[in-house]
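Changelog entry: the Cytochrome b record was regenerated in this release. Current contents:
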Amino acid sequence: LLLLYPTAFSFSQAKFLSNFAFHLFWKIYALHGIRYMVAHADTVHLHVVVEALRYIT
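Regenerated structure tokens:
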């Protein structure tokens, strides 16, 4: 994927995109986690989701 980017692609832009992707991944993970928890009433997964939400906020 990185090979598709032009060579002039700056480090700051790359860092911004990686941070954005990382936070987006955690938000998606948290949303799926909440849906899973509601479906399965899994208290262990709730703790993982809460930690993930605390980490990104």
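Residues 11-40 form the longest helix (30 residues).
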